[in-house]
Amino acid sequence: MKNMFFAILFIGGFVATVNAQLNDYKYIIVPKKFNEFKKENQYQTSTLVKYLFEKKGFTALYGDELPDELNNNRCLGLWVDLIDGSSMFTTKTKLILKDCAEKEVFSTKEGKSKSKEFKTAYSEAIRDAFNSFNTVNYAYNGNSQKSAPITVSFKNDVKKIEEKKEVVAPKNTESVAVIKQEASTARQTYKSVEPVQSDIKKVEVITGTLYAQELPDGNGYQLVDSTPKILMKVYKTSMPDYYLGKRDGTDGVLLKKDGKWFFEYYEGGVLKADELDIKF
Q1: Burial class (CB in 10 A: 0-12, 13-18, 19+), 179
Q2: What pLDDT is stored for residue 171 in this prediction?
Q3: Are residues 65 and 168 in the same domain?
Q4: Domain end (from 147, 171, 205)
Q5: Model-wide pTM > 0.70
Q6: What is the pLDDT of residues 232-246, one digit of tens each?
Q7: With 263 labelled, which of 17, 24, 89, 221 sits at a CA distance of 20 to 30 A?
Q8: At what angle are helices 45-55 and 118-129 packed, to 10 degrees?
Q9: Rounded to 5 degrees, what angle do the CA atoms 24, 28, 30 make?
Q10: Nearest in space to 270 (alpha carbons), one of 98, 151, 132, 154
């Protein structure tokens, strides 16, 4: 009896934790083509997954139909990945939900079907996997807003810098500027010319057109300039126009916004976004 009590207590705590995790996210993003399949919406898997999430009370969207707030802050959503573990006689599927940092937040059980017809088999296996959501009472709580990238406005900063540029130096003392400042609506930097030690490696600024060359394994592209020099590599995800990238040893994401490509990464704890001209 005592063991049963603790088992019930453990299960209740687990369910509460899962609810709390999923409630932090506003959207579920379903790719129109899962990596496990060759065709878009093969066996109507994407259509079914989106429908079942909506039936459970989630706001489910296709990956190419994202609202502006989700394009501006991808941490509002969880991204669906389908794992196909099928064998010769059994169709097996599992659904994994990942956050904007590709971290796994939730995984269903492995759904199974013995049906010999592919469309029916995947439908049954996916529905079986969705039984993992039967104990989930989803209700968005708004917490994912905390993960939104910081938007900095430079509207008033230029005026403040101009007001402070006059420096009064002590009498008979030579004034030496140790700070270089550049301010505009597009860029604002503060560069110290004092000798300091630093182990921070700055990411090289890329200018000009980059050309995408597919990697030998087909999992992504290397981006080269006209010389040609390899400047960065990007790797495919389950989402269209959304790649994991590496440049000068710095990890980030390459994504398309309003028809333009941006490489987003953290430098010194600050989120940065560089616009790139890429020809695929």
Answers
A1: exposed
A2: 55
A3: no
A4: 147
A5: no
A6: 999 999 888 999 999
A7: 24
A8: 30
A9: 160
A10: 151
